[in-house]
Prior knowledge:
Elements: H1 4-10, H2 15-29, H3 34-56, H4 64-92, H5 99-127, H6 138-193, H7 196-212, H8 214-234, E1 240-241, H9 242-260, E2 264-269, E3 278-279, H10 283-294, E4 303-309, E5 313-319, H11 334-345, E6 350-354, E7 357-363, H12 367-371
Parallel strand pairs: 2-4
Antiparallel strand pairs: 1-3, 4-5, 5-7, 6-7
Amino acid sequence: xxxxxxxxxxxxxxxxxxxxxxxxxxxxxxxxxxxxxxxxxxxxxxxxxxxxxxxxxxxxxxxxxxxxxxxxxxxxxxxxxxxxxxxxxxxxxxxxxxxxxxxxxxxxxxxxxxxxxxxxxxxxxxxxxxxxxxxxxxxxxxxxxxxxxxxxxxxxxxxxxxxxxxxxxxxxxxxxxxxxxxxxxxxxxxxxxxxxxxxxxxxxxxxxxxxxxxxxxxxxxxxxxxxxxxxxxxxxxxxxxxxxxxxxxxxxxxxxxxxxxxxxxxxxxxxxxxxxxxxxxxxxxxxxxxxxxxxxxxxxxxxxxxxxxxxxxxxxxxxxxxxxxxxxxxxxxxxxxxxxxxxxxxxxxxxxxxxxxxxxxxxxxxxxxxxx
Length: 372
């Protein structure tokens, strides 16, 4: 059984999805097997009696109905006992990952139930003096036990197959719910990725440009529209080509350069062979915001950012000139950026300080992973 706590450990799903899956789990745990029992008990008894008839009462059709009555009662009791054992074992060893242990204990429990049940049936038949020959013998018990265990295991296999494939289906549904939840969280992340002061700063810069340089103001508006158009598109796909990400970073960098002046510069030198490589969207915007927030920028200490690609990874370097004081603006620290990237891509982003320069290495997503 997939417990509610297991869902909580992998993340919160929608209430509707949790309710649906829990309902399906409870349905399976209730063993809705009315028709299987109504048909299975008499059918198994008839087959069992015809299999035993040549050994114990050959040609004695007059005894068949007596054996039939006692066998239906005893088989019903054995079935119910096996059913109880099945439910308790499922409760102790739930889910797909414990199938081996569950099956092993089921075989053990069924063997015990079949052995005890057949012994009690022989006692009843002997007490009622139905059998034409002595029946309380080990040989008779072994034959009855073997046949009974065969039917119990056969029917138990049907129960287990229904349970296994039911939980497999639920696991697939849970995976789909997790994907939807991750997509929802990704969308929420996208909504919060842009620094809340970014739009205000852009509008302030635009207001100044309108009176000073109408042509630059017009281009500023064009680049700003490209940035927000990309932001609106970014939530539609988990990975984007590097070419799209670089085009976005050019527009985003233009807005920053217009606001910060010559003290900020972004140089891009990426070979054409890397342009179709995949990355999660907005990774460059996060890195640029991180640098602006944590590094000093001024005429005497310009921040020159270089973007290149090498050995299946995007490389970004910048001079290390940390601010002595900076205001925390939420989740724009490197640990959060690296953690988000790893969650989205399954790969590790690396930051290093070499020769007084910051180096960031962002691995590309392989084609097979991007296709999934």
